[in-house]
Specification:
The complex is a heterodimer of chains A (about 400) and B (about 90).
Chain A (H helix, E strand, L loop, with lengths): L5 E5 H11 L4 E3 L7 H12 L6 E3 L4 H13 L4 E5 L1 H16 L5 E6 L13 H4 L7 E4 L3 H18 L3 E6 L7 E5 L3 H7 L23 H33 L8 E4 L15 E5 L3 H8 L6 E5 L1 E3 L3 H8 L4 E6 L9 H10 L7 E6 L9 H13 L4 E3 L2
Parallel strand pairs in A: 2-3, 2-4, 4-5, 5-7, 6-7, 10-11, 10-13, 13-14, 14-15
Antiparallel strand pairs in A: 1-8, 6-12, 9-11
Chain B lengths: L27 E5 L8 H5 L5 E6 L2 E6 L9 H5 L5 E5 L3
Antiparallel strand pairs in B: 1-4, 2-3
The chains are: A alpha/beta (about 400), B alpha+beta (about 90).
């Protein structure tokens, strides 16, 4: 079922194409660097009549996500996109979206947070929203950005949970890559029409996200937590369904294990003793270095729900792992490091876990940097370092 | 009793706020005295919409629904006849 041609396209435009093909009813987007090209392209498509969605030009990101709530609550399919300060401005509303179980889809083009003012890439913006009850998927390349955008609409409406598709700003959003588009008919087949459980309708009035007294609030929170944990299976099923339909998939959907099986020059049958844990586009550079250095790579694709058991399974038997991330939870550690370490705590003879904070504020993560990180992981001692 | 929890905290039966009797929140109880002339100003001001003007023994008078009155005493402050007094609620 492979079809259509490969396009060499700016990844932001590929994402806009995916959104267009998923036929949202409402797009409320406030432009912000480096998300701008998605916003511009979708505006152009709306103006040219290529997409029937109503494009709402809002006055802020807080309004963008609020407009999406209104639209989705009416039973429509809503989409937005943002970056950095824009995502931070949405913070308050993000909890309301998940609490009301509205399957809004948002693209987050990852950018650092001010101050000091920076427009460049890291993942502090979406990492700091990981407790808001949204599914968060991090993509590695342009093709995955396009594919995941389509998967996101389906995952969202199957779980009644909102989904963030997170992709690195500039490093991914502004580069040109070959991306294969699906035929419109295939997208329509993969993402069926949205049928809401509840919708605002004067003929059958409802209140959404009503007052939760202490007796009820905790039960709704538990319900949301259970839904997020259960969404792991949906993410995996959608990933494997996509793979069987279109020939492309990304690990098991939650994590991707890369060259974890022994390859030359290692002896056949021997397994890896060390691994690099990555998230996002830096995995591409790591592929070219870590495997040659004798390390496997475990790429986290789903940060929420967190693939705790999957990571435990992938890391069991390893001597040491290092987490390479573009995030710092100020006053603690890199968040991915903390969570990986917590997940591996219950492993008997689990690996040594090291932390490497890299690429903050758009710093390049070079092949030499990763080689250096690999050497430190192989040494088997726990280190916590900033690559700078 | 097994409670029904609609995902998204959706209340799908309109008017269900009537089941939540807020009268138990009250610390002060407003009491309408004989001075009431039934002008209805308190009805306009009551934030809980729990005062009605009724015909009681041939005379129009304000009647407070204590199931929902939270005891804010706005009616007492607004009454032009000073016809509403208050007592501390006995629990």
């Amino acid at each position: 079922m492979r079809q259509t041609k490969k396009n060499v396209v700016e990844v932001s435009y590929a994402v806009a194409e995916a959104v267009k093909q998923c036929e949202p009813d409402v797009m409320a987007i406030y432009p912000i660097t480096p998300q701008t090209h998605i916003s511009e392209k979708l505006s152009q498509m709306a103006a040219d009549g290529e997409v029937s969605a109503e494009k709402i030009n809002v006055e802020s990101e807080q309004s963008a996500i609020s407009a999406c709530i209104g639209a989705q609550a009416m039973g429509l399919r809503a989409y937005t996109a943002t970056s950095s300060q824009g995502l931070a401005l949405m913070h308050e509303i993000l909890f309301i979206v998940s609490g009301m179980r509205l399957p809004i889809v948002m693209t987050v083009v990852n950018r650092s947070l001010s101050a000091p003012l920076s427009i460049w890439n890291d993942q502090q913006d979406s990492f700091s929203q990981r407790d808001t009850g949204w599914i968060q998927l991090y993509v590695e390349n342009g093709q995955e950005a396009y594919d995941t955008q389509i998967q996101a609409f389906r995952i969202a409406q199957e779980t009644n949970l909102p989904v963030m598709v997170c992709m690195d700003g500039f490093m991914l959003s502004h580069v040109y890559e070959p991306v294969e588009y699906l035929a419109q008919g295939h997208v329509n087949g993969f993402v069926p029409r949205y049928k809401p459980g509840y919708a605002l309708n004067p003929d059958k009035p409802v209140t959404m996200g009503t007052l939760g007294t202490p007796h009820y609030y905790v039960q709704f929170r538990k319900q949301l937590q259970d839904a997020l944990l259960a969404s792991k299976k949906t993410i995996m099923d959608v990933n494997s369904g996509f793979r069987s339909s279109f020939g492309r998939g990304y690990g098991d959907g939650l994590i991707e294990e890369i060259c974890m099986k022994a390859t030359p020059p290692m002896k056949k049958g021997t397994s890896r003793k060390h691994a690099l844990i990555t998230i996002g586009s830096v995995t591409g550079t790591a592929r070219d270095v870590a495997c040659k250095e004798g390390l496997g790579i475990i790429r986290v694709r789903s940060l929420r729900p967190f693939p705790e058991e999957e990571l435990r399974k992938a890391c069991s038997g390893l001597d040491s792992v290092g987490v390479l991330e573009k995030d710092i939870s100020l006053g603690a550690n890199g968040s991915l490091f903390d969570e990986v370490k917590a997940a591996l705590y219950s492993l008997r003879d689990g690996p040594v876990v090291s932390s490497f904070i890299a690429g903050i504020g758009g710093r390049d993560i070079t092949m030499d940097d990763i080689r250096d990180v690999c050497t430190k992981i192989k040494a088997g001692r726990e280190v916590r370092e900033w690559v700078m | 009793m097994k409670e029904r929890l609609n995902p998204g905290a959706v209340a799908d039966s309109p008017g269900s706020s009537k089941q939540n009797k807020t009268g138990s929140w009250r610390s002060f109880r407003p009491i309408v005295t004989d001075k009431c002339v039934g002008c209805g100003l308190c009805v306009q001001y009551c934030p809980e919409a729990c005062i009605e003007i009724k015909d009681v023994k041939g005379k129009k008078t304000a009647v407070i629904n204590y199931d929902f009155c939270k005891g804010c005493l706005i009616c007492l402050g607004e009454c032009p006849q000073k016809a509403i007094k208050s007592e501390r609620e006995k629990k």
